[in-house]
Amino acid sequence: MCLITVDSLAVKYKDLCAVDNVSFNVYEQEIFGIVGPNGAGKTSTVECIEGLRRAYSGTVKVMGLDPWKERQKLYGLMGVQLQDTAYQDRVRVWELCDLFSSLYRDPAPYDELLEIMNLNDKKGAYVANLSGGQRQKLSIVLALIPNPRVVFLDELTTGLDPHARRQMWDLLLQLRERGLTIVLVSHYMDEVEAVCDRVAIMNRGRIISMGTINEVVNSFNLKTEISFSASLHDTGDIEGLTGVVSVARKRDVIKVSGHGDECVAAVLKYLNDNRIAYSNLAVKPPDLEAVFLSLTGYTLAEDGDSANGVGRG
User: Fold this and answer.
1) What is d(CA 67, CA 60) in angstroms, rounded to the nearest whole number?
2) CB 107 within 8 A of CB 101
3) Element spanning 207, H or E
4) How many Å apart are CA 23 and CA 6, to the nearest integer?
5) What does the alpha-carbon distance between residue 106 and residue 74 come to, in Å, rounded to a whole number?
6) Residue 307 CA, distance from chain mean position
């Protein structure tokens, strides 16, 4: 079942077209990722879906409702975790949850949500005393209090350590299994690869690729990177192997670039057949980061560079 339909959406700020003719659907009980650098149009797109921003043109429907004209009906059906959220330091966790619960007709029991997010022992704590990861988890609890069918999470794990990020990913998968539909806005490709069923890659206001992770990656003829350490004076024979495109060497580290499994198999066979001792073998297949780099010419790690875009994500 299709919960969200975006058709030819455009958002403009004076003379700047922040979102340019974007279309996609989000289906029930899926995690749909929207990725791209700052200025790509991610947040502007999602704000239109949430009813926080009026579209310049195009149409948006969420569960059959117009989010701009029917916000009151829709807010009882969706949860929102904004990119920038601040709470009063001297408010306790339970007080904040109680306040949010009072705003909705049929709120979810926040005690249960705190338990799911491993925050039950922090119910009486002041927000100021929560760690960064705990605050992020609290933001999800507050987004889920409306008992929504769909929840929007914007840059959920920014600033979290690797362990906390992976905990958050596990929680998202649990929520999806409980029947929730999730729209995840991120500039972290590893995050999207870990949790999303489908992904839309945005750049300069447009969707430049969309589909499952495998569909997006496999739609580009990208190269596998192989690296290993070996005492080889001449790499000419490797350059002629099946599937190999290029070979580079720096001291005793050799890096081979080629096409898929045939390249990996050919390199390993050559090393074994010629009894060449090697170590530190690493094989890096194409991923979403490589796709984005091939499409845009820069990595998502450069998201703070104003040359990559203007305005909000």
Assistant:
1) 7
2) yes
3) strand 206-211
4) 5
5) 13
6) 21
